[in-house]
């Protein structure tokens, strides 16, 4: 009855299988046969040429994806509740050498932690070309957002148009990209839209410790090859990371797992719909609960994080038990 | 017949076993039961209190170990052929925010890439307290060295005394620490000596993607917890890294594997002793070979790296075949 | 009729005189006789031992003062409208290697851009010891604040107590420190309070290009000597900066100039008191003015900056003409 | 009888005059009329369009000039005795965010600290496109070199051709550019050659605290405007730096002063020619002298720096007394 985080879930059996199969003699770093297949495999998924680099964590994926877009004196526009701002311990400041996160959007989830062109313009237009101000060089959005909201293709297109018009890079933090795509019923390409780089999350979705950075512009990847090594993220036995990523894509495991997690989230929603803080468009459920109510649930064995003083966050995983999720919803209904 | 690198070796079955056993529901990051056991397990190995943090690569281990010792305006004295200078793509410059590697010792292996107090003093004494010069804050040595040479306890003690006297931190890159300890027949504590932090290598010795940073001063570790997260190296499913490390230590697998690799290296030496560039005190064998001789060996199926124009490097692994190693040595003898 | 900025004012004749007198052969960098007198001169001013380093700009002063207090993975609590956040083009991110500015206090001048212990606690208490969150290492306050408000000794003492209790450094941006001290009628020591480092501003107060960083802890200064050189701020003919600083302190020129600027600001206030956005406690006057009213004033020859859509900022200088200032106030009264 | 450094010389009267004339009300930062004239004035000097930014020190000039050419993961090829490596306290590591100085050329002055295409290729060719190695992004040469040697146009052209061929930026540290141009009898354009950016030194040549960074590609300057502010080097009263630079260029004061310094250096040479370590092609004279001989000269009142154990460096300035210089040479001849 663990709804703390999809980070805490198990590794999917097909991932294990692929990792075991990777354990033979092969070339080190990413010169192995599996790593060499990534571009093609993800290219087929996205229906266009891509360059793919593996890393072990989402934080590394996000920061390395942004690194070639943002010089040290530049800025990244992101939502003020974005993971890169709130939960990465200053990693963007490290990887981008002091570049600034330029915080946009509403506080406390008012906009579901989704950016809009207007919210972005409100931050960057007033300081344009002022040498005393950090200038934006990229925009980062999160699909699904930190409140489990999914960007629709038109919303991404509007932000992409703004980015192109201003010469800004566009990055997508896709720690739960699969959940968004599964919810929207869209292809990977449609759920991503016209972006420059995507942190394609796998660890929250059944992998062990491999994330994919998808570059839609190979020139960005050519820079990041050096940045990844420089950050100590070029593993010498990279074949085990490549194996995880390939296992996630082949036979659509990424979608299958995301659908399972989303379904468990919706099972919670069934009972808790009146207390929802946000529409549930992925595998995260934010529910208004008093401290006493949370205590009641914890006494019943449910694990989850508080979300401020009056709410809680429940995250379903690929291996969440549907029955447990439904029971949780019902218990909430009865509170 | 792969002697390219111990990086290319397989994952030991006991490591696999431990990883599989770690795959249940547990707390994320390093709050899991396995990660929590690291301090005690390594403490027993070293016979003193230690604080242990896992990371995925040796580059990350080295740089994070040095991070709390060296401010951005400081320097690290290391051998001019040290891995941190030669092979980490500038990672120390990244992790230490532009701190300088202060290169000491002889070129081209004259001293086996081992530092001495004199070599260190020759670099740091002339610039002492000169505000126009980067000042040293730490020393980094490699056990076994980049030429497969092992520091004796007295040699380390002399460097440690110098470090203490000048208020410098002392780090040991132990990518092949196990090989050195096995060769010397010393305990882990004896092979490490009086240092502040040790990058305890496992990936070259049978693990998949886990290295241990051993801090002999817990205050250093308390800083590095933040630095590790900031570098994107705090994996959410850290239990799989902890499992690897524990598997390496329990039942002395680290020593067993190192002994096997060292034995294979010595098997090569048997035939090649007259061509050795350096005494073989670990699992690396540097052999003078002309381009034509190397071509002959490669035609016979041996894989290895050239070492400059007139030599080659052979690295044995825990899973090297002793017979292959011996054959290699004999072939060299017959060249 | 220039009220754009005290940056635009002239260099005081006594500063010129001191600079000319410094032009003989002397030791380079800060080994000259004038630089060597700084500690003693400022020590007398503050009534305690201090270590003083000159730099050319307030941005450099602020960032270098903070550098020894804040590691790259740490944070600085400052007001969300502090100069270091709003107007230094990301310099803190550069000098502190990606450390984070942790923004506290109210938006849009609600609190006059002055921090309080409560405002600080609201930012740092929720994330205490969370490895996923940047941890605070210092607090920076501005005397006088960005809205020309002066901290009273009790207010500083309360913040200092909080800082000590949490082991945080305390820095004061004193770009207009003289104006605050003059307004409060306090000694330098009283206007500074129990802080670790002070950026003692001179450029806005009659100097040409010299600011003093006052360290109340000599260990901080010993670090900053290296940081200053590393930042290219150790001028080889530093005697000309030292000369400016000494001229400002000797015969209380710093106070005399600040009083003149403050008096000019108050002269504006006389007419404009009903439109004031903030009490005028230094040399800055923020006045509610429509776009048309601002146009009227500009047509009359007054130079000043807009402050948002409905206000303007007027800054008086040591060389502001009192008559002009009074006329400006009267014109505003008649609008 | 001061031959320690041209840094210790006085400020030229014409520079003083220009600074005094700049002391009126004008726009802050570099929006003043003098700063706005720099591009045109230096453009006329170099016979082509340039963009000029002032800074206070040579260290800042060098590092800011390189900043837009070199990403944090890149490298700068420079001579192993270059000022940026030897005397700037790690400033390149700071400004370039950990980028690496890739040291080329001979030790101990064997090549007069001048780079050649061969010396550069020896450093960069072996590591080309290796992700484990920092890759070069720029070359920096010094005119005149750290041993007072002047690059001839053909030598610069050969390096420039190499740089273009490999896509590397080319920077010239011209702390003593004027001395080289004066010695060679070349125009500024000829003495600079086909480079991307030049640190045009003035502080060692009669200015107080202003250096010019000359960009031959305006896109580089557009980046450095932000970098300069971010480094705290955008002075608010920048007109006083612009005034110094204009004074140096107008009426060829830069050449006149350099000729005077060079003449004084040659006056020393007259007596000391047999002891010269390097041909004297600027204003620095390196002379073999035993410790006792140096003591004799110091007793006679001469000030200079030791250069290792068996030599000394004498630097002449624009205000060196020719008679004193000649006497010094004669004294050396009599030792």
Structural summary, described in words:
Four copies of one chain form a homotetramer. Chain A has helices at residues 13-21, 33-36, 38-46, 58-66, 83-86, 91-95, 117-124, 153-166, 177-184, 188-192, 218-230, 239-249, 253-272, 291-299, 322-334, and strands at residues 51-55, 74-79, 100-104, 135-142, 169-174, 197-200, 211-215, 284-288, 305-306, 311-315. In chain A, helix 1 (13-21) crosses helix 12 and helix 13 runs parallel beside helix 15. The first copy, chain A, has a seven-stranded mixed beta sheet, sandwiched between helices. The mean pLDDT of chain A is 97. In chain A, a hairpin with a 4-residue loop joins strand 9 (305-306) and strand 10 (311-315). Chain A has two domains: 12-253, Type I PLP-dependent aspartate aminotransferase-like (Major domain) (Aspartate Aminotransferase, domain 2), CATH 3.40.640; 256-334, Aspartate Aminotransferase, domain 1 (Alpha-Beta Complex). Chain A is an alpha/beta fold and 335 residues long. Chain A contains 15 helices and ten strands. Helix content of chain A is 42%, strand content 15%. Chain A is globular, with a radius of gyration of 20 Å. Chain A starts with 12 loop residues before the first helix and ends with a helix. Chains in contact: A-B, A-C, A-D, B-C, B-D, C-D. At the A-B interface, helix 4, helix 6 and helix 11 of A face helix 4, helix 6 and helix 11 of B.
